């Protein structure tokens, strides 16, 4: 997505932030709590073609 507002409230999303980092978030929520991620946890991002 391009911005947080592209997703409904409570939906997960990933985007490239203004500093070039991949941001994993929940729109109007807390991704750390919902996804149980912690700093330093390894993650895998799979890109799918639409």
TrEMBL record:
Gene3D superfamilies: Bacterial fluorinating enzyme like. Residues 3-44 form the S-adenosyl-l-methionine hydroxide adenosyltransferase C-terminal domain. InterPro entries: SAM_HAT_C, SAM_OH_AdoTrfase_C_sf. This is S-adenosyl-l-methionine hydroxide adenosyltransferase C-terminal domain-containing protein. It comes from Oscillatoriales cyanobacterium SpSt-402.
């Amino acid at each position: 997505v391009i911005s947080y507002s592209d997703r409904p409230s409570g939906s997960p999303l990933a985007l490239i932030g203004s500093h070039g980092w991949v941001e994993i978030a929940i729109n109007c929520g807390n991704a750390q709590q919902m996804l149980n991620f912690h700093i330093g946890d390894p993650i895998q991002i799979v890109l799918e073609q639409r």
